[in-house]
Design goal:
The complex is a heterodimer. Chain A contains 15 helices and two strands. By secondary structure, chain A is mainly alpha-helical. Chain A has two domains: 150 residues, Fumarate Reductase Iron-sulfur Protein, Chain B, domain 2, CATH 1.10.1060; 80 residues, no CATH class. Chain A is globular, with a radius of gyration of 25 Å. Chain B is an all-alpha fold. Chain B has one domain: Transmembrane di-heme cytochromes, Chain C (Fumarate Reductase Cytochrome B subunit). In chain B, helix 4 packs antiparallel against helix 5 and helix 5 crosses helix 7. Classes of the chains: A mainly alpha, B mainly alpha. Chains A and B meet through helix 2, helix 3, helix 5 and helix 8 of A and helix 1, helix 3, helix 6, helix 7 and helix 11 of B. Bound molecules: protoporphyrin IX containing FE (HEM) and iron/sulfur cluster (SF4) (2 copies). One iron/sulfur cluster binds next to helix 5 of chain A.
């Protein structure tokens, strides 16, 4: 804010008695400007379809098949998806109750960060659930079978599937919305079911299927993991990450040395995320363990990996 | 008319009770394989009962998330509860002293209920987000309830009907006798809409009332470390490995 050369008066120095020797060099203090405080959070106006372009990559056949799913969208997927929904409705009470219970009161509408950030109404938790609820109503409730328009029911169509693929993949399953719903309706449960249905008809998400497949492969290999596996810090390596994480009391290697398993790549490459990397480094340093620079240190052996590796 | 309403009420009662019982049977029969109570969650069964009590009686979560919806919704539901209790006088002879005591409150509760409903309905037009998520059935449900409330209030304050005869009619129904119902358009409307409400209850969003008790995020004890929680179908997967 202030000119570099001008000494900045930190406070208007109220009483002469105030003993403040620390304020001697105010000009050297970092200047951090916090966003202005708002008394009332502003709810974004709807921007219809603002995130409709966010269309993730569909998994390749090999990645789907490695996990036992059909390679590509199967014939008659509509019926199969609806049947799968029926199966899940019988397996998860959460899904069953949540499909029925929502009263469209709207209390959750402004509680999802994906909505707050994008203004796309389909990112409102209730609208996200409704992508599935409308299909549920059509095939599994009497009013939806008789009067689809009246209750907002819709057939399972390509358009619906496309919306599912877009908007269920824009939910991080954080469950924030469930805190605020009067019935605790948890959109994450719905999102998980939708993803399971899409997987089952051969319409998986590229990075989910590929990396899960990779993790499954990794798990089958004896340790140490494949050479060179640590080159891509940003790639989620689920298999390995989990192995380290589950170590608990068992002696385990610090995962960073070899693979930087638990790290988003942003920790290495982006500002201000790199601050968290520095934070981890300080913790490791204080604990006497080699820090986050992968290759320069001798193999560290630590005996409780859980606290360190679950930091992500 | 007497016969028609008698048949309608019998049918609606069967549908309402049978429908809700069937839904509860379905909810009970569906396993909840995961421990997903929304934290901070109680760690004891007593705590869960207390949490559920606060949710059902005070709408605690809703209070935290949106004061407008809470105020209007709570006004409506408390009004509805009192009005329903007040109506018990048509079904019991002699009238229980508690029911007799709340009669005057029930009268004003009718206004509270109508005001709450009107406010909730206004939201569906005025708030962009709520407008977006509203389906025609959401509007109709509010219209139906408001219709019942308004015809009821009209009969109370404007165009009276013979409530002694109404009581004779309902007491009769309970012992399978059909007595005459006063020929009153307001009453026909009021009762017709009540029948409709009873019929749609088990297939509509009104299932939130039984549903709230079965919501795993609200009715589970937060004790996954103390006792393993596993559904039968998940246990089968376990034993295969
Ligand atoms: C265990 C009993 C009940 C509980 C805990 C409960 C709770 C709630 C809550 C928290 C809401 C959301 C806030 C609102 O929009 O008002 C709601 C909405 C609603 N409730 Fe209930 N309720 C119960 C019973 C009933 C009954 C018996 C009826 C009607 C016969 C009913 C009709 C409605 C309607 C129509 C709405 C939607 C209002 C709107 O469209 O905005 N509720 N309920
Ligand atoms: S669970 Fe999904 S819908 Fe709910 S707040 Fe989180 S990201 Fe949004
Ligand atoms: S808060 Fe719950 S009941 Fe209300 S609209 Fe959202 S999901 Fe539906």
């Amino acid at each position: 804010m202030a000119d570099e050369t001008t000494p900045v008066a930190v406070a208007p120095a109220p009483t002469p008695a105030a003993p403040k020797p620390a304020a001697a060099k105010p000009a050297e203090k970092a200047k951090v400007v916090a966003p202005p405080y708002r008394d009332y959070p502003t709810i974004p106006a709807l921007k219809i379809d603002s995130m409709v372009e966010s269309n993730p990559y569909v998994a390749a056949a090999a990645h789907n098949e490695a996990l036992g799913f059909p390679g590509t969208l199967v014939d008659g997927w509509e019926q199969k998806a609806v049947a799968k929904m029926g199966e899940l409705l019988g397996k998860y009470r959460s899904l069953r109750v949540y499909m029925d219970a929502c009263v469209h009161c709207g209390a959750c509408t402004d509680k999802c960060h994906y909505f707050i950030g994008t203004g796309d109404p389909k990112n409102m938790p209730v609208a996200r659930q409704d992508l599935m609820r409308s299909v549920y109503r059509r095939y599994y409730t009497l009013p939806g079978k008789l009067f689809p328009k009246l209750v907002g029911a819709s057939d399972m169509t390509q358009d619906v599937l496309d919306d599912w693929f877009r908007y269920y993949n824009q939910c991080s399953e954080c469950r924030r919305c469930s805190v605020f719903c009067p019935y605790g309706i948890d959109t994450a449960e719905v999102t998980m079911a939708a993803k399971e249905i899409m997987d089952s008809v051969g319409h998986g998400h590229k990075y989910v299927e590929r990396d899960h497949g990779q993790g499954a492969q990794d798990r089958q290999q004896p340790r140490p993991a494949r050479p060179g596996a640590g080159k891509h810090a940003g790639r989620p390596r689920r298999g390995r990450a989990r192995r380290h994480r589950c170590g608990g009391q068992v002696p385990a290697r610090c995962p960073w040395r070899r693979s930087a398993a638990g790290h988003p790549s942003a920790d290495f490459f982006a500002e201000p995320h790199v601050d968290s990397l520095i934070g981890y480094g300080k913790v490791f340093h204080a604990a006497g363990i080699s820090g986050p620079c992968p290759r320069r240190h001798p193999k560290p052996e630590i005996s409780a990996c859980s606290s360190a590796t679950t930091s992500r | 008319m007497n016969l028609l309403f008698a048949i309608l009420f019998y049918a609606a009662t069967v549908i309402l009770v049978g429908g809700i019982a069937y839904r509860i049977y379905e909810y009970l029969g569906t396993p909840a394989p995961l421990k997903i109570p929304t934290t901070p969650a109680p760690t004891t069964t007593g705590g869960v009962a207390f949490r559920m009590f606060r949710e059902v009686v005070f709408f605690e979560s809703l209070f935290k998330s949106n004061l407008w919806i809470w105020a209007l919704g709570w006004l409506f539901h408390v009004g509805l509860a009192l009005v329903l209790l007040r109506h018990l006088r048509y079904f019991t002879e002699p009238v229980n002293s508690i029911i007799a005591f709340i009669q005057p409150f029930g009268m004003y509760a009718g206004f509270a209920m109508a005001a709450g409903l009107a406010g909730l309905w206004a939201r569906r037009f005025l708030v962009e987000r709520i407008r977006y998520i509203s389906t025609p059935s959401d509007h109709l449900m509010l219209a139906l309830l408001l219709g019942i409330a308004v015809t009821g209030l009209l009969m109370k304050f404007v165009m009276h009907t013979d409530i002694v005869a109404v009581k004779t009619f309902f007491l009769g129904l309970m012992v399978f006798e059909i007595n005459p119902l006063p020929a009153h358009p307001g009453l026909y409307l009021h009762l017709g809409m009540v029948v409709l409400l009873m019929i749609v209850f088990p297939v509509s969003k009104l299932l939130h009332a039984p549903g709230v008790f079965f919501s795993p995020t609200r009715n589970q004890v937060d004790n996954p470390r103390e006792s393993r929680h596993i559904a039968p179908w998940a246990a089968q997967l376990d034993s295969k490995n």
